[in-house]
Design brief:
By secondary structure, the protein is an alpha/beta fold. The chain is about 45% helix and about 15% strand.
């Protein structure tokens, strides 16, 4: 009998220990998993801080992981978060196509997926998409170049983001809609893309045609690659492709690099260069007259929209959407956030008065 009692007691101790472990495991469950592309760009570090703040005061928890430019690491991050019991995944893909496998694993685990800022493509495992109006970004950049065009036959240098990022296509598509008529009528002459020059009379480009141009002028969102490409283009440029030039740069990091290259060429009399993201370094460039403009995408709004969607899902309600985007497999319900053009004339109003930045973050304001 004593032996039997000992066995029962041992079983009870094991069960109690398992219950304690289980309870501890439950307390460590994460409600919302977030995967961002890299910690090496200011934009994503700022997003990390804002995502954490967005859940303050709620009963939900979050964990944020970075993929550091690797789709394999991205998939590993998603699997880690699935194992922590997430109910919602917010993910900004490193590569839109490659991320499909990661979100399919999330879907199989019953996790709702929100594609953040960049669209995950060629899969039905995306439930929602939170984005800025990417076509509007490209249009705003191009319109700034058109509004500041000088004379006829002005050299136009085109640059794009990464061919692996669906947004790069949307930005360029938007820009082309505005620039193409001005290329066709001779206001601009494309200086660095034979593909774009060959399509100057084509108002609406197919995906393959966009790919052809982007393949020639991609920066891969990399400042060094943008610098090298700009140097190569200027070295090869004839004299009539210098002077007063217009430059479509896809974002702020590449804009600063490209601007520095053009500024160092004595045959370039002046240049107008676009940007995107309102990075602090580029805002200083705008103030200093080194970069012409940036498209301000208030990530506070984007983070709020994404986390608002996540909380709706967790609360069992249907998130608000304003449209949809086709990802090559399905139409993904989306919420769009507006964008704002910022240049030297309105930088204080748009970025300081809105408390996105502090005045003492800059010199010469």
């Amino acid at each position: 009998m004593k032996k039997g009692f000992k066995s029962i007691a041992l079983v009870m101790v094991i069960m109690l220990f398992a219950a304690i472990v289980s309870a501890c495991g439950d307390s460590k469950k994460v409600s919302v998993g977030i995967v961002l592309p890299t910690k090496d760009e200011p934009r994503w570090v700022q997003d990390e801080t804002r995502f954490k703040a967005a859940l303050d005061g709620t009963d939900y928890s979050t964990e944020i992981l970075f993929s550091q430019g690797s789709s394999a690491k991205e998939k590993e991050n998603v699997e880690t978060l699935i194992n922590k019991g997430i109910q919602v995944l917010i993910i900004c893909p490193q590569d839109g196509d490659a991320a499909a496998a990661a979100v399919e694993a999330a879907k199989d685990a019953g996790v709702k997926v929100i594609s953040y800022d960049r669209l995950i493509t060629k899969t039905d495992a995306v439930d929602y998409y939170v984005t800025f109006d990417s076509i509007a970004v490209g249009k705003a950049q191009a319109q700034y170049l058109v509004d500041h065009a000088k004379g006829n036959g002005q050299p136009l240098y085109l640059y794009a983001g990464a061919a692996s990022d669906n947004n790069a296509f949307l930005f360029f598509q938007g820009a082309w809609e505005v620039l193409q008529p001005k290329i066709a009528d001779g206001t601009f002459k494309v200086a660095n893309s034979s593909e774009a020059e060959g399509l100057k009379d084509t108002a609406e480009l197919s995906r393959d045609q966009l790919s052809g141009i982007i393949g020639q002028v991609t920066t891969n969102w990399d400042a060094n690659e943008a610098k090298n490409k700009a140097q190569t283009h200027l070295t090869a440029a004839a004299a009539d492709m210098k002077g007063d030039v217009a430059i479509l740069a896809p974002n702020d990091g590449t804009a600063r690099s490209i601007a520095d290259v053009f500024a160092s060429d004595k045959a370039v009399t002046s240049f107008v260069v676009t940007g995107q993201d309102a990075e602090q370094a580029s805002v200083q460039y705008v103030i200093d007259g080194k970069q012409s403009m940036t498209v301000f995408k208030d990530v506070r709004s984007l983070v709020k929209d994404a986390m608002g969607m996540a909380i709706s899902i967790l609360d069992g309600t249907t998130p608000e959407t304003t449209g949809s985007y086709n990802n090559g497999k399905i139409d993904v319900p989306a919420k769009q956030t507006d964008v704002i053009v910022v240049d030297k004339a309105n930088v204080k109003e748009k970025l300081i008065d809105s408390e996105y930045y502090k005045a003492d973050d800059f010199q010469g304001l």
